[in-house]
Amino acid sequence: MKNVNNILTLALSKGRIFKETIPFLTDAGVIIHDDPETSRKLILNTNNPKLRLIIVRASDVPTYVQYGAADFGIAGKDVLLEHESYPSGTLYQPIDLNIAKCKLAVAVKNGFNYHEMVKQGARLRVATKYTKSAREHFAKKGVYIDLIKLYGSMELAPLVGLADAIVDLVSTGNTLKANNLIEVEEIMTVSSRLVVNRASLKNNEKHLRPFLEVFAKATI
């Protein structure tokens, strides 16, 4: 998708990433005219006529950037690792913004002896939407698993016998605790990163580079 009139498009998702991105935009002198939590608009204009924001699902940010519908975006490491479809070199990931920090972890129902089951070589049923990361994690451990892909309410799976374990993002751990689950293994720490379409960086560097410099400076 060709950039029109050199207007830059930044892809963001609602929630924590959006809120923690605002200080970066403020440092760049950008004021957003609408709040995505209260507005139904999916394209948000700013006080900068050369920058607009689009609000998309977190898992779709890399796709919008990959195909040039957005010049740049912010996505979690978890999402980027799962986004297997983009050709090598299409997405440039210059900056770890160190925002929206959490971890990808394995959790089970309280009382389930996960480590003993792994030690015995048991085959586990694992529910997750992070299938690539989960598959790679258990493969490295030599653990055989049956993956069950879910898109939400992950904590329910062990409670109703759908799965032995889940792989999901954990921040405070309060949701696990409220559902009688416990974290048994950390897979990786997760933070959000700036991703840039390489063609946009090449063809519109004059307008894009100042924003990249603001993001980079703010993370020092």
Automatic annotation (TrEMBL):
InterPro entries: ATP_PRibTrfase_cat, ATP_PRibTrfase_CS, ATP_PRibTrfase_HisG, ATP_PRibTrfase_HisG_short. PANTHER family: ATP PHOSPHORIBOSYLTRANSFERASE, ATP PHOSPHORIBOSYLTRANSFERASE ATP-PRTASE. It catalyses: 1-(5-phospho-beta-D-ribosyl)-ATP + diphosphate = 5-phospho-alpha-D-ribose 1-diphosphate + ATP. It is an enzyme of class 2 (transferase). Residues 57-213 form the ATP phosphoribosyltransferase catalytic domain. One of its GO terms (molecular function) is ATP binding. Heteromultimer composed of HisG and HisZ subunits. HAMAP family: HisG_Short (MF_01018). This is ATP phosphoribosyltransferase. Keywords: Amino-acid biosynthesis, ATP-binding, Cytoplasm, Glycosyltransferase, Histidine biosynthesis, Nucleotide-binding, Transferase. GO terms for cellular component: cytoplasm. Pfam families: HisG. One of its GO terms (biological process) is L-histidine biosynthetic process. Lacks the C-terminal regulatory region which is replaced by HisZ. The lineage of its organism: Bacteria, Pseudomonadati, Pseudomonadota, Betaproteobacteria, Candidatus Kinetoplastidibacterium. PROSITE patterns: ATP_P_PHORIBOSYLTR. Its EC number is 2.4.2.17. Coiled coil: none annotated. It comes from the Bacteria. Catalyzes the condensation of ATP and 5-phosphoribose 1-diphosphate to form N'-(5'-phosphoribosyl)-ATP (PR-ATP). Has a crucial role in the pathway because the rate of histidine biosynthesis seems to be controlled primarily by regulation of HisG enzymatic activity. Gene3D superfamilies: Periplasmic binding protein-like II. It is found in: Cytoplasm. Belongs to the ATP phosphoribosyltransferase family. Short subfamily. Pathway: Amino-acid biosynthesis; L-histidine biosynthesis; L-histidine from 5-phospho-alpha-D-ribose 1-diphosphate: step 1/9.
